[in-house]
Amino acid sequence: MTLYHGVAPLLFQLDPEHAHDLAMRGLAAVEWLLASRFLPRPLTHPALSQELWGIRFPNPVGLAAGFDKDARAAHVWPLLGFGFAELGTITAAAQPGNPKPRLFRLARDRAIVNRMGFNNAGATAIAQRWGTHRQPSSIPIGINIGKSRATPIGDAVADYLRSFRQLAALADYVVINVSSPNTPGLRDLQTPAHLVALLSALGAENDALARGHGLARRPILVKIAPDLSEEALPEIVAAVGRGGASGLVATNTTTQRAGLRTPCDENGGLSGAPLRERATAVVRTLRRLAGPDLPIIGVGGIFGPLDAYEKIRAGASLVQLYTGMIFEGPRLAARVARGLVELLQRDGLSHVREAVGKDA
Ligand SMILES: Cc1cc2nc3c(=O)[nH]c(=O)nc-3n(C[C@H](O)[C@H](O)[C@H](O)COP(=O)(O)O)c2cc1C
């Protein structure tokens, strides 16, 4: 029982989106105080620190996309114990998202349903605001990009390219979100032909930016849905190989509603505890299909160290969480990272990389 568990019932009296806005406003205020003054030291440990894609991750517990959609608190996340943070989803065009209400707490299921619909200030505005006073963060920052709602699926490649051009220089890695259930048609981009075309175009742009600006190529990862069929996963892994992506993020929210205690007929994506097993199964399948050389970020239903460890043993090199933090509080990432050290010790492992894929 933490202090947060005492406060949560009061917070849960608030409308979920209002509570989120309040939290983000507080975090943005801390960001403003911090950003130009000092960089918080990240939580790290010799057993947890690892290098992937040439980037040093102080610990493997990251913030999942969707919490900090407008990149307002990049320097605050390490204060909460996160070893990296994924900001966004950001789209090329600014957009308001779906009409409210669009965020629903399913308390008895420790779950959330959301149909936010990529509400964000748009790549240009975010790059301008953030780029001017972007200090390097003390943790790796990923930027997650998605398709603008107004852009037809046939023009999706150009839309992603616009965002990539604006934002790649600010990110340590870039995630292509083709799996939100809340932008009509978006998940069709998971089909092999679309995915290879998208990844090839982004890869070429990545090379051009690297040549033109002397930047290192940004690792590009693909974030996939938990609702893909078993037959679709080998196709995704093959497309990721052909398109030259550097990794996978598994998984986004699910459109499934099986086994919920809270009656919920709201449309949108379900996250949290009911997603955990399915997301872990997808990580395991991807690891078996892709082998040890393609890093996977495992996400879905992490509420404590054991849940994170399960994802890592299934094949994830890094993990992320969102819904767990709503129910367990802002110190969850720190608790998970510290708990991972204990679990590795328990199993006689000296480094997290030794656990990756052990149960695949
Ligand atoms: C309110 C909300 C908004 C989200 N927005 C995004 C988003 O913009 N982009 C994205 O890739 N994932 C988004 N997600 C999905 C999360 O990043 C994550 O993949 C999913 O929630 C499963 O993790 P969890 O069970 O720890 O929440 C969102 C999730 C929630 C709950």
Tell me what the structure shows.
- The chain is of the alpha/beta class.
- It has one domain: TIM Barrel (Alpha-Beta Barrel), CATH 3.20.20.70.
- Helices cover 38% and strands 15% of the residues.
- The chain has eleven helices and 13 strands.
- The strands form three sheets. An eight-stranded parallel barrel has the order 3-4-7-8-9-10-12-13, surrounded by five helices. The protein has a three-stranded antiparallel β-sheet with strand order 5-6-11, with no helix packed on it. The protein has a two-stranded antiparallel sheet with strand order 1-2.
- α6 links the parallel β9 and β10.
- α5 runs parallel beside α6.
- The model has no long low-confidence stretch (mean pLDDT 95).
- Bound molecules: flavin mononucleotide.
- The site of flavin mononucleotide has 27 residues, from β6, β11 and α9.
- The site of flavin mononucleotide (FMN) has 27 residues, from β6, β11 and α9.
